[in-house]
Predict the structure of Mitochondrial import inner membrane translocase subunit.
Amino acid sequence: MDFAGGQSVQMPSESDMMHQVKAELATAYAQEFYNTVRDKCFKACVTSPSSSLSSSERTCLERCVDRYVEATQVVSQSAIKALQGHS
């Protein structure tokens, strides 16, 4: 039985599959990071939600997001160094 309509079907290489898995994991991680930062910073900075942010809420949110980004970078760099040390 010919399911490919007479054409040969090329399976993705292991490298291509790994690249796709890594890309999907990176996307999932970015989404999770965004959701966590959004939820935690909003809860910490926005005291009474309205149609716009006050300048103090905006400043708080900017600082909160910056702290999460910096902390994530530190943790990521430490994890990479630890992984490289075990190679």
Summary: The mean pLDDT is 87.
